[in-house]
Amino acid sequence: MRKPLIAGNWKLHKTIREAVELAGELKRDLAGFTGADLLVCPPFIDLVPVAEELSGSSIALGAQDLFWEDSGAFTGAVSGPMLKEAGCSYVIVGHSERRAYFGDTDDVVNKKLNAAISSALTPILCVGESLEKREQKVTKEFLRKQLGADIRGIGAELISRIVVAYEPIWAIGTGRTASPQMAGETHHFIRELFAEHYDASIAANLRILYGGSVKPDNARVLIAEEDIDGFLIGGASLKADSFVKIARYSIM
Ligand code: 13P
Questions:
Q1: 90 CA to middle of ligand 1, Å?
Q2: Is 0.70 surpassed by the pTM of this model?
Q3: Which residues constitute the domain of residue 101?
Q4: Helix, strand or coil for residue 121?
Q5: 243 CB contacts (<8 Å, ≥6 apart)?
Q6: Structural domains in the chain (count)
Q7: Ligand 1 pocket residue status of 234, Cβ below 6 Å
Q8: Which CATH number do you get for residue 167?
């Protein structure tokens, strides 16, 4: 049985003061919530104050990225051991915005995945096709190639520590969600890819989150899909009310 994971990706939003305020509201409103794992991923600078605010709650903390080296002359970078000590247990890797604006190639994503795993962080590996690929009807071929490159060389004993997020690029921040059926089918396909690369039990235990314009009013129909195990939420995670609603609808 896969426990749902409801994760907020705050992207480039929230100053320290705003982040602590939102974390405080979530801690209050989700006190005693069970049935799904909860996670927030604020900007780097907010991590430590948010960790302090969340202490004593069951809401986990994650970062939005990491560098693949632990330390060294890499100006501006933040490493896995640093995130771990800051209180993170998760880290997002390969988000399409990192790939588009910061040049994260599949090679880079692969290194970051390995770095996250070696720092005992749970990576949330984001994959997803562009509108162009979807319209050309080559989504499966694209995902097979992207995922294959991202997880290359990672053995079965380590791969069981990752979470995958399917985020079709055309659904991110656009208000255009994948239909439950389309998302469900693609999640199923991703699970099959893990069965091919590893084995049926790894595939069956893998948590696959959906991301892309998830809102309180579409959460229920999406989570009802067999292969959707939770959400990676952007815009709707920036307000306590909508994040809490999505979390609650995900376990009903
Ligand atoms: P939105 O929920 O704002 O579409 O963002 C999705 C996303 O990119 C989460 O990582």
A1: 17
A2: yes
A3: 5-249
A4: coil
A5: 6, 8, 26, 233, 236, 237
A6: 1
A7: yes
A8: 3.20.20.70
